[in-house]
Amino acid sequence: MSSHWILGPGAIGRLLAHSLSPFTAIALISRRALPEQQIFTSPEGEQQTRLLHVLTVDQLVSETHGQPGFVHITTKAMSAEAALASIAEVIPPTTPLVLWQNGFLAQPRITQAWPGPVLCATTTEGAYLTGDDGVVNAGRGHTYVGDLHNQHAKLAEQLAQTLTQAGLTAMAVDDIRQRLWQKLAVNAAINPLVALNGIRNGELRDEAYARRVESVVKEVAAIMRAEAIAPPEGEQGEKAWLALVWKVVENTANNKASMLQDIEAKRPTERGAILGPLVESAQRHGLTSEVLQALDAEIAELEAAYGR
């Protein structure tokens, strides 16, 4: 079975590493050294300690390694291209990449630039880190895999089967662009509000936050209609998007969203990859995006305050 390199030891990267390691060779690649002994906590609260093959980028570049079957890029969207560039000299240009970024920023850029196959993955698995040696799978979900031009169906199916075997329910699809936009819509309604208020996903149902969720979804639904993106359940319109958001909130109620994790760690957030494409689309289609722009400005203000 193909080996898997995982570039980026964030929550999804470590979840992948723990899931895949019992079934295939993996390498978890980081900019800085991390403990090889890593702790995984399941949604049921069960803990497992595993020895993972952890490498720094410098080690990878300076040492000789076998070629990977897949390279998963699990960094934040704004770091994906630089992360790929940091290891590009040690992998053949035909190596399949798998992009796990939120939003719709890195995927089209890397698909256009990389000569080999580029798969995109979107997942509703909930995960968050507990320090340098731990990750919590806070909620089980579904993962979809495909490529933007629907040219690598067999490769997507191979990867989906491997992920499913590893316990991450996955499916190869021929409409990954639609699904990336669908997740973008959900992320825009959840991540910024969770980050701004310092709460878990499930708390968005509280009266203090629910109305603002609805106001975000109202703008997002209009943008999705203009982009010809339908909700995944087959229903149409604003009510269907709101139902989808509340379903994800329910399924990931205990999850600490990635944007909140970034704010707490005083890291740059993915606001540009999540809110940026929506605001840009709204402007292109002559739609209002006041709520989305306000969220973006509030997150930007939080980021600007890190150094104060």
From TrEMBL:
Tree of life domain: Bacteria
Its biological purpose: Catalyzes the NADPH-dependent reduction of ketopantoate into pantoic acid.
Signal sequence, renumbered to the chain: none
Catalysis: reaction(s): (R)-pantoate + NADP(+) = 2-dehydropantoate + NADPH + H(+)
NCBIfam families: apbA_panE (TIGR00745)
UniProt GO BP: pantothenate biosynthetic process
A GO cellular component annotation in the UniProt record: cytoplasm
Name under which the protein is recorded: 2-dehydropantoate 2-reductase
UniProtKB keywords: NADP, Oxidoreductase, Pantothenate biosynthesis
Domain Ketopantoate reductase C-terminal: 175-298
E.C. code: 1.1.1.169
Domain called Ketopantoate reductase N-terminal: residue spans: 6-148
Annotated organism of origin: Vreelandella sulfidaeris
Gene3D superfamilies in UniProt: N-(1-d-carboxylethyl)-l-norvaline Dehydrogenase, domain 2 (1.10.1040.10), NAD(P)-binding Rossmann-like Domain (3.40.50.720)
EC top class, as a word: oxidoreductase
Classification lineage: Bacteria, Pseudomonadati, Pseudomonadota, Gammaproteobacteria, Oceanospirillales
UniProt KW NADP keyword: yes
